[in-house]
Amino acid sequence: MGYQLSKQQAAEMFQKLSKTYDLFAPVRKKGEGCFSDTDVIRYEKVSSPEEIAWEAKSDYSFKEALLPINETLFYFTEDETLVPKAPAKARLVFLRSCDLHGVKRLDEIYLKNGYEDYYYARIRTQTKFVLMGCPSSCQSGFCVSMGTNRSDEYDAYLKPAGEVLYADFHCPQLEAYAAETGAAQAGVTPDYVTENHEKVTLPKKLSNESFSNKIWEEYGNRCIGCGRCNFVCPTCTCFTMQDIFYRDNEKNGERRRVWASCQVDGYTDMAGGLSFRKSQGDRFRFKVMHKIYDYEKRFGYPMCVGCGRCDDVCPEYISYANCVNRLAKEEEAHEE
Amino acid sequence: MKNEYVPQLSEIREVIPHTDLEYTFRMAWEGPEVKPGQFFELSLPKYGEAPISVSGIGEGTLDFTIRRVGKVTNEIFENYVGDRLFIRGPYGNGFDLEQFRGKELTVIAGGTGLSPVRGVVDYFARHKEECESCTLIAGFKSPKDILFKEDFAFWKNRISVVLTVDSAPEGYEGSVGMVTKYIPELTFQNPQNAAFICVGPPVMIKFSTLELLKLGVKEEQIWISHERKMCCGLGKCGHCKIGGTYVCLDGPVFNYTEGKDLLD
């Protein structure tokens, strides 16, 4: 059921929601971008619609709301471990359609694929998603090509328009918050894009033979292995374990997991000196193949959701989208 | 819901030194049944976790043969006396003994690669009637690097054993040469009924399997075991992934038909 909330009603709804939920939404942080006089949009806790960056795609994805950049798994004392308590409040995460499709990828790895992840699962079961529509396409996204431009699996949809806020709900508990404000009912359907500036065609016949493609070496020569593409990606899920100890009491400490990147040195290093994929080209190939081939082979659908953030963030201006298109073109040329 | 990341403390029951760098730690274990070829995450707070293969399965104990090569293993070597380690597992598929029952089994192992497969060799050495024949070709760098010397003394009277070293000082009486040198000498009563396990460093696996294929062995008759960096062992951290395969979940033991396509 859809609603039209006045400014005051919207404020009231957010205020009440904040009592039950922690609201995580993209926030524009003025002047905190990589370059001087640039902003960065990333996820933070909010309590009002005005704090949210509705107008543009976030530079970092929503994933830090479910998978902290570093997360304490447990504390050590001498011979005991103590698992930190789950967050006290349930979560509402504001995101766009591409990212909502990203949630499915995170679930695939963290809830399925072998064991269920205790830490992810306990936050995830307490999380609801608020869809932010896309009235127009962002510059680098190619969600239409990836089929992630629309999503019906939201718990709520919110759209500010001038002085009012439109809302639609699939979750009755959330809907109650809007109804309570006395907001008028309205027909609301989520905005979504039907065409992007960027279009991507996936190659159909990647295989181990694609390993010898010269394209990897070419991109490898440009890549500096900073891993930013992994950190902004809504579907990258890797982490590394880390033990830290307190300087004041060396007998106590904690085991954490921190985000990891398959592009950064050390990712495959084993004790004793063995390591794999030593060149940047091999790593780039590994990443691209994972996003559009290997993951699909295992789970039945491509990993990449086409948000385009990796292309936005790359300091070497490497376009993953262009790389994928080149692979598809080469394939086509090969067939002719 | 079980929190798989939280390890349990396990007492070190016995320490068996093999070389200056390699010791077997016999740890107390009560839990699900463990298969040879499976692994555990062993850890010492402050130094982190390391995936270590089970090298022996006893009554209420598990053996881990640890090579002192990294931050975690160095510390384990410093701190073992009367001490305890954190362990969690077992993870991975391990070797399925059923696949080798009634076969002419040959195990080719290099260095610490013998650890994950030791349980298989030992089982068939003790239950000779359960396989047609059992041959072990084990290679080490030099005579001082030889592991499980007591086992070799026991095995050599029960199964066919080739214990070789890559190089040896003058006067060494044992076999010298890479494991690959001894593969062409293998003979079988019924080549169709032969099975092979190949475990060791990647280069050794590569050349040993090539030698086997040259003998006319079919790919599906060969099993290999892979080693990779693993932070979780649970299919989450991504470090062990090769293509679409998670070594921690789908392996570490692979039939060669599958394993040969795992290219980093």
Order of strands side by side in the largest beta sheet of chain B? Answer: 10-9-8-7-11-12-15
- Portion in strands of chain A: 15-25%
Radius of gyration of chain B, in Å, reads 18 Å
CATH architecture of the largest domain in chain B: 3-Layer(aba) Sandwich
Largest sheet descriptor of chain B:
7 strands, mixed
Q: Order of strands side by side in the largest beta sheet of chain A?
A: 3-2-6-7-8-9-1-10
What is the distance, rounded to the nearest whole angstrom, between the alpha carbons of the first and last residues of chain B? 34 Å
State the total count of DSSP E strands of chain B.
15
Mean pLDDT of chain A: 95
Q: Structural class of the helix and strand makeup of chain B?
A: alpha/beta
Beta-strand portion of chain B reads 25-35%
Binned, the helix content of chain A reads 25-40%
CATH fold-level label of the largest domain in chain B: Rossmann fold
CATH superfamily of the largest domain in chain B: Nucleotide-binding domain of ferredoxin-NADP reductase (FNR) module
The count of helical stretches of chain B stands at 6
Helices and strands in order:
The complex is a heterodimer of chains A (336) and B (264).
Chain A (H helix, E strand, L loop, with lengths): L1 E4 L1 H14 E9 L10 E7 L23 E7 L4 E2 L7 E6 L1 H14 L7 H7 L2 E6 L10 H4 L9 E6 L2 E6 L2 H9 L3 E2 L29 H8 L5 H5 L6 E7 L7 E7 L20 H20 L9 H5 L6 H16 L1
Parallel strand pairs in A: 2-6, 6-7, 7-8
Antiparallel strand pairs in A: 1-9, 1-10, 2-3, 4-5, 4-12, 8-9, 11-12
Helix pairs in contact in A: 1-5, 6-8
Chain B lengths: L7 E10 L4 E7 L10 E6 L3 E10 L3 E7 L3 H8 L5 E8 L12 E7 L3 H13 L6 E8 L8 H7 L4 E6 L9 E2 L17 E6 L2 H13 L7 E4 L15 E2 L2 E2 H4 L2 E3 H4 L5
Parallel strand pairs in B: 7-8, 7-11, 8-9, 9-10, 11-12
Antiparallel strand pairs in B: 1-2, 1-6, 2-5, 3-4, 3-6, 4-5, 12-15, 13-14
Please give a handful of descriptors for the protein shown.
heterodimer; A: 336 residues; alpha+beta; 2 domains; four-stranded antiparallel β-sheet; 10 helices; 30% helix; B: 264 residues; alpha/beta; Elongation Factor Tu (Ef-tu), domain 3; Rossmann fold; six-stranded antiparallel beta barrel
